[in-house]
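Margin note from the TA: students keep mixing up input and output lines. Inputs are the sequences; the output is the structure of the whole complex. Example:
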Amino acid sequence: MAQEAQQKQLITIGIIAAYATLAFVGTTIIRVPLPATGGYFNLGDTFVMASALLHGPLIGGAVGLIGPALSDAIGFPQFILATAVVKGIEGVVVGLVGAGLRKGGRSGLRAIMALCLGVIILVAGYYVFEAMVYPALAQSVPFYGVTDAKAALAEIVPNILQGVLSAVIAFGIWRIFIGVRK
Amino acid sequence: MLTGLKWKWQIKLLLLAVVAFPAFTGYPLGIFDQPVIDGLTRGWIGYGIVTHIAIGLILGASVWAGCLAIAVAIVLPVVFGGAGISYLFYLTGLGDAAGPAGYSGHYVGLCVTMLTVIPLANGLISVVPVHEVEKRLLMRTQGVYRREKAALMFIRVFIHIVFFVIPNILEVVREERFKNEQIGDDRYDDGYAFPEPIPIRYKIGRAIRMLVYLGVEGICASIQYIPLWAEEIARLPDRRSPGKSNYRKE
C-alpha cells in the first residue's frame, strides 16, 4: 500500500519533471530577442498551460515555477525571479479554472477561458515586475536594474503575441489529449 | 589542462558555483562598471575571461570546448536575430531613432554576457556525473531516502527528454518537415506554370498545426516510461532518518 502511494507520488514528480523539461527546452530552443528590454519571445508557456489544463493547478504551478526559470538561468538570470513567480501563478490559475475539465465537463469554452486568464496573467505579471518590482529592487540590488516603465510598456505587445500563440498551441494539445470534437 | 582537475566532482561543483556567484548576483561586477562601449562594462569582459579560464582548468579543454560550442549555437540566433529585429524596427520608424549606432552596443554586451553565463551553466550541469550518482543510489544496500527517490525520478526524466526525446524530434523535423509542409498544397496547384499562391492564413494554420503535433509528440515520448520508472524506483528499499523510523521491533 505504502509502495503504491509512493509510486503515485513518483508519477506526479515524473510528470512535473517531463513538462518542466519540455518548457525549459521550448524556452531555450525557440528564442526571439526583444530589443526593448533585452528579453526574448519564446513558446515555453505552451507546456505550462498544457500541463495545467491536462493535470490541474498543482502540476501546472510546479511546471511554471521550474521549467521557464531554468531556461532563464541560461543567459538571462535577471529574469529568473519574474519568470518563476509569473509563470507559477499562470500555471496555478489555468489549472484552477480548467480543473473541472477532467471531471466529465470537457468544455472547450472553459479551457479557452482558463487560457485567456493565463495570457492576462503573463502580460500583466511581466509588466508589474518590469515596471514596478525590478526598478524598486534595483535601488538596493543593481543586478535587477535591467528594465523600467518605458521598456515594460514596449514589451506588452510581444508578450501578448507570445501568450496567445502559446495558448492556441496548448489548446490544440489539450483537444488532442481530451478528444474534444466540436 | 586538457583533462581538467583530478578532484572529486563535489569540489569541482563548489569551485564552479563560486565562479558563477557574480553572474547570478551582479556582485562584485558592479564595482567595475566603467563602460568599454555602451552596454558592455570592463567588469563583464574581465569576468568573461576569468570564467573561461576557470572552466578550462576545472573541467578540461575538451569539456570547455563543448560548453562553448553549445553557447555559440544559442547565442548566434539571439544576438543576430535581435539586431536584425531592431534594424527592422528602425526601418519602420518604431525603433531606436539612432539606428544601429544606438543598439549595437547592447547586442555586443548581450553576446559577451551570454557567452560567459551559458558555458558556466553548461559546466555546472556537466560536472555532476549523473549516471554514476544514479547507479550508486540504485545499488545502495542501506536503502534510499524518499527525497533521493524523487531526485532520481527527476534526473531520469530530464536526461531521457534532453538526450533522447528532443534529438529524435529534431531529426523528424529536419527529415520530414518539407514533406509535411507540402501536404494539402496540391489543392492550390491547378496545373498551370504559375499555380495559385497559398493564402497566408493557410500557412499560419499549417505552422500552428505542426507545432501542436510536435508538442503532442514531445509530451507522449516524454511521459511514456514514467509509470515503469516510478514502479522501479518505488521498489527500492526505503531508508529513514534516525529517530523517524517506524519499523516495529520483532
